[in-house]
Amino acid sequence: xxxxxxxxxxxxxxxxxxALSMAAPAFATGNVVITGTYADIEIEVEVPTTGTxxxxxxxxxxxxxxxxxxxxxxxxxxxxxxxxxxxxxSSIPLEIGASVTAVPKGDVEIxxxxxxxxxxxxxSLELQVAALxxxxxxxxxxxxxxxxxxxxxxxxxxxxASLASTNKGAFPAASKGATTAPTPTAYTGLATVGAATxxxxxxxxxxxxxxxxxxxxxxxxxxxxxxxxxxPWATTDGFEATVAFSFxxxxxxxxxxxxxxxxxxxxxxxxxxxxxxxxxxxxPTAPGQTATFTVTETTPAAGQTARTVSVTGGKFIMPDxxxxxxxxxx
Length: 330
Fold this sequence. Notes:
Layout: H1 2-23, E1 45-46, E2 53-55, E3 62-65, E4 71-74, E5 79-81, E6 84-88, E7 94-105, E8 109-110, E9 122-131, H2 146-155, H3 157-161, E10 168-170, E11 185-193, E12 197-199, E13 202-204, E14 210-219, E15 238-249, E16 253-257, E17 263-267, E18 271-272, E19 277-284, E20 291-297, E21 308-309, E22 315-317, E23 323-329
Parallel strand pairs: 8-9, 16-23
Antiparallel strand pairs: 1-6, 2-5, 3-4, 6-14, 7-11, 7-15, 9-10, 9-14, 12-13, 16-18, 17-19, 19-22, 20-21, 20-23
């Protein structure tokens, strides 16, 4: 009997121990080790690897041939650059930055600004980036007419006439005879290119997916030597410029909910890139009412009326500026 009693006791203790063992994980704490490593996420952008420019003291016409056998002239550019473009082939808008530097050739000296007192072969160089907004450029990457359209845009004065100072970047100074480039000067926010539409292996540019860029500058038409004698421009005079572009996702625009009376309003995103569809949801205080939404520009330019964004079925497409949402319930 003692054996049997002892055995039963032992079994009872073991059963209790097993129950406690099974319950233990519910009360235990443990460490989770998470390892993070950098991984490239590619941004697809098409940028030329080389380009050509020429010193053109009088800004004489430089003829560009198009694929359709017509021509256009680049005029009034003392530094005349052949057409070049940046094409965003990613599904998000990108901000363009760049660092610039140049090595002078021949008797050329590069200055950050050429004053009227400079009579020799001093030149200033400036990178200019013009973001385009043209529905005719919303074409597939395989469209053979695209380059001709960009040549026309490149040659048009209107493309460059309204550029802001933020779209330009001066090259650093470099002395005559320098054999190595000076430290590059870096610029951010030169322009923004809009997203492309990607469907499988097909890429279609949007109206804002492409930017043009060129070198511009100033120089003396008839340079002189120190003794004031003529020192004509020679084929050995020139420069070798290097432009290193950088790209990052553009800043998203704010979607602000304004003062709402008679209910509440929520948006599917508080920030969004241009072209993103935003869904608005209105919840009335009084049952049975519905919301009518109004979306307007949050901060219009000085002297301008706030722009209004179309809302259909409680949805709107995010523009390239911050917006404020209001609503009426009825």
